[in-house]
Write a structure and sequence with these properties.
The structure is a single chain. With 204 residues, this protein is an alpha+beta fold. The protein has two helices and eleven strands. Bound molecules: copper (II) ion. Copper (II) ion binds next to strand 5.
Length: 204
């Protein structure tokens, strides 16, 4: 009887934890890629840290954030104005992925506290999304994710383009490479506990 009660307690604890955590987590400090325009060229400032951790949780999110379910992810990197500027007339700032590790997945985010309102739409080549993405000038933390443990990297070009994303060659661009590490986690504690209890029951 005691054993059964313990198992129920663990299952109940897990279920209530999952229901409470319906939004993706925002682990770690923000790491910004600074963006400005000096009148001639885009100028980027690298984030303070690189090789950021992607972490896989036992959470289950509701759509549209469910694209992160079962995957390791991070929203630490973000695009942010480093010095106020006005783009040239009839122009926009575009961010284009030039190369990336196969298996790196990216979804549209925004400001981290606003994550209940993010679209979680695929961007930067994920699920055949365009490689180019128009930046609206606000702080934007995309959701970077992966299914397989390993090292990940992506190189982006930030440039002045027209409303369709065609580069305007009169202006200079800048590039930045971001990196992540998805370190495999040990088997979940809850899974081990339940597995242990079940095998203990079978042994009887
Ligand atoms: Cu930020």
């Amino acid at each position: 009887m005691k054993r059964l009660f313990a198992l129920h307690a663990i299952l109940f604890g897990t279920a209530s934890f999952c229901f409470a955590e319906t939004l993706p987590r925002v682990a770690g400090p923000m790491e910004h890629v600074g963006i400005t325009f000096d009148g001639t060229s885009i100028v980027l400032t690298p984030p303070k840290a690189t090789g950021l951790a992607m972490t896989r949780y036992e959470d289950s999110y509701d759509p549209p954030a469910d694209i992160l379910n079962g995957r390791a992810y991070s929203s630490q990197y973000g695009w942010l104005v480093s010095a106020a500027f006005v783009p040239p007339t009839d122009s926009a700032v575009w961010i284009e992925v030039l190369s990336q590790t196969p298996g790196l997945l990216t979804y549209e985010g925004g400001m981290r506290p606003m994550r209940a309102n993010h679209t979680y739409a695929p961007v930067f080549g994920t699920a055949d999304a365009p490689l180019r993405w128009e930046w609206n000038g606000l702080m934007h933390h995309p959701w970077f994710a992966a299914e397989t443990p390993g090292d990940y990297a992506a190189t982006y070009r930030v440039y002045i383009g027209d409303s369709s994303g065609n580069p305007r060659p009169a202006y200079g661009d800048d590039t930045i490479t971001l990196t992540w590490q998805f370190v495999p986690e040990p088997a979940s504690l809850v899974g081990l506990l339940i597995g242990g209890l079940l095998s203990a029951g079978r042994r009887r």
